[in-house]
Amino acid sequence: MLNKKISELLDDQFNKEMYSAYLYLDYANYYHEQGLDGFANWYDIQAQEERDHAMLIRTYLHNNGEKLALEAIEKPSGVYRSIEEPLRLALQHERYITDQINQIYKAADKVNDYRSMQFLDWFVKEQGEEEKNSEDLIRKFELFGNEAKGLYALNQELLARRYAAPSLVL
Ligand code: OFO
To answer: Is 130 in the pocket of ligand 1 (CB under 6 A)?
Structure first.
């Protein structure tokens, strides 16, 4: 059994990870519509990773005898004003998720829930990587994305991304 508050926060985080997957699928759909299959591939894989994160939380809750309540997943906007906009929104979103993970970590520390803190260590590191990836992508877009050849090359680079299962196994 976990502390009730920690269990609730993790349950809520499951929903946020599923929303992240939904959000990134929305970006992927947008890029498909724009003919940018590399950008779409990048966010399709991103969405899959977010779903993995949700499933890790689910497994952790189950392994600790906790129930998981499935709540409705918020609807992403589906409307973007420029090719660059989802990239910037993704960074904002990752920073928000980092803050949420940090808050659960802090709450776990408060109730001496070292097990959950150890579980969350992986997510803390992962968020650092995801923020960096989002920042790098914005930087590359600023450098190359505003002219056709550069955008084509960047799209090709993103097309080469392959899915890798999470390094955390529970
Ligand atoms: Fe779930 O990894 Fe970022 O948001």
So the answer is: yes
